[in-house]
Specification:
The chain is mostly helical and 240 residues long. It contains eight helices and no strands. It has two domains: 116 residues, no CATH class; 100 residues, no CATH class.
Length: 240
């Protein structure tokens, strides 16, 4: 959510910059006060509503697993309502600008706090889950888990070699996921994480297994894989 707030504010401020260029002609010769309200005030407002809309969309994606237009509709509606409220002129231009400049930092502080707390819970809890799953696969207890039962239910749909590749793909994905979370925790603690030349071979193996399993097989094991935006981000971060 922190990243979405930063990107959303940058996009909104960029739009405000383009809009203010057009107003340079329409409001030529006006004083500093007018430009402070018209230029700076609306720039902060545009950046703020875009950031709030982006934060809501990312929250729905991460916590509710919403996808497509449904993911963006609530944030867009909230941004439009806030923009409309600003344009209604309920407060004076000076009061609206002051309220925007004072209120947005408070909103962002709350977002940053909850985002940081959520990230810590995800790192700790998901890391434990990944390690437990790796241990069960190694010990043979995986068949007794709901995930293992689901994989066994695919016996009639896929040949043994494909099911073996599925299990290997799942195991390697869990190892890389746990590795990425461990690296993030060490970096947060201020420790240096040396580059691992073997990582590239692991990602090559993942790509090979994905081709071997095929689109239908990947679709079948998708419920077993961690495919939330945070999980995909951590894998990208590790691969980069």
């Amino acid at each position: 959510m922190v990243d979405s707030a930063i990107c959303g504010f940058a996009i909104g401020a960029g739009f405000a910059l383009a809009e203010n260029v057009s107003y340079l002609q329409a409001l030529r010769g006006r004083g500093f006060g007018v430009w402070l309200m018209r230029g700076f005030g609306t720039a902060v407002m545009h950046g703020g509503v875009a950031a709030i809309g982006a934060v809501i969309s990312v929250y729905l994606s991460e916590s509710r697993q919403w996808r497509g237009a449904r993911q963006f509709a609530p944030g867009l509606v909230v941004a439009m309502m806030l923009h409309s409220l600003f344009n209604q002129g309920v407060l004076s231009p000076a009061s609206s600008t002051a309220a925007t400049i004072a209120g947005l930092p408070l909103i962002f502080m709350v977002v940053f706090y909850f985002s940081e707390r959520s990230l810590h819970r995800w790192l700790g809890g998901k890391l434990d889950q990944d390690i437990d799953m790796i241990a069960m696969i190694a010990s043979g207890e995986f068949k007794q888990t709901p995930q293992g039962a689901y994989l066994m239910s695919l016996n009639d749909a896929f040949p043994p070699e494909v099911r073996g590749d599925m299990l290997t793909f799942l195991h390697l994905t869990l190892e890389l996921s746990a590795r990425a979370k461990g690296d993030l925790i060490r970096r947060e603690a201020g420790l240096e994480v040396p580059a691992d030349p073997a990582l590239e071979s692991h990602f090559k193996e993942l790509r090979y297994l994905e081709k071997s399993i095929g689109p239908t097989g990947m679709l079948a094991i998708r419920p077993l894989l961690s495919q939330t935006p945070r999980d995909l981000w951590e894998m990208h971060h590790l691969g980069g």
